[in-house]
Amino acid sequence: MGDVGGGAASAPRPLPAVRLEALSEATDPRLLASVLALRPGPGQDRYCLPASMTYPPASADPLRLPFAVMAQLPGPGAGERVVGFGTLDRHGQLEHLLDDPARGLLLRAFYVGRPHQGRGYGTAAARQARALAHALEPEAQLLVLCVHESNTAARTAYARAGFADSGARWMAQAADPQVVMVAALQPR
C-alpha cells in the first residue's frame, strides 16, 4: 500500500470517500473481473499477492469476507471504480497475534492498485474496514493486521487510519518481520 499523507509541516489532506463492497458468488462478473485484474505497485509483490491469487481461497472460506474498495474517480465520465481489495478474516493467525483471538478480526490481502496509490484511498479504506469488521462481528473489539517493517508507506497509512503498533511481531525471526497493528472496531 503506497499512499502516504503530506509532509510533516503540512496538515494532513482530507481522505477521499471510499466504499467497501463485499464480494461473493452473487457479485457482478464485471466488478469481479475488475478486482481480479487489480495489481499492487511495482516491487510490492513482496508485501502482498494480487486478488487473482487471494480472492479464490477467501471466497471459498466461510470465515473470510473478501471486499472491493470502490471510489469515485476524478474527471469527466470516470465514475466509481475498483481501486483496491482486501479480506476480513475471522480466524487467520489471530491465535498467534492476540491473547484472546475472539476479540479480533484480521485484515489481510489488503492493497490499493498501482494506478490509484498515493491518493489516500488505502487510508480511507482501512478506516472503513474497521466499520465493516464491526458489522460482520459486532462482538469483536479489534481489527488486526500485519505489515512488513520495511513497508514504511503502508505503516504510515495504517497509522493515519487509526491503527497502532501493538509491539508484537509476526515472523519475528524473518529478515523483514511484520509489525502487528491494531485498531478499535467502529460502528458505521
The largest sheet is: 7 strands, mixed
Shape-level CATH architecture:
3-Layer(aba) Sandwich
Gyration radius (Cα, Å) is 16 Å
Strand content: 25-35%
- Poorly predicted regions: 1-9
- Which outline best applies? globular
Provide a short characterization of the protein structure:
With 188 residues, the chain is α+β, with helices and mostly antiparallel strands. The protein has five helices and seven strands, in the order βααββαβαβαββ. Residues 1-9 have low confidence and may be disordered.
Explained architecture:
It comes from Quadrisphaera setariae. Residues 18-186 form the N-acetyltransferase domain. This is GNAT family N-acetyltransferase. InterPro entries: Acyl_CoA_acyltransferase, GNAT_dom. One of its GO terms (molecular function) is acyltransferase activity, transferring groups other than amino-acyl groups. There is one protein chain. The protein has 188 residues and is an alpha+beta fold. It has one domain: Aminopeptidase (3-Layer(aba) Sandwich). It has five helices and seven strands; from the N terminus they run βααββαβαβαββ. Strands 1-2-3-4-5-7-6 form a seven-stranded mixed sheet. α4 (121-136) crosses α5 (152-160). The radius of gyration is 16 Å and the shape is globular. Mean pLDDT is 89; it is low at 1-9.
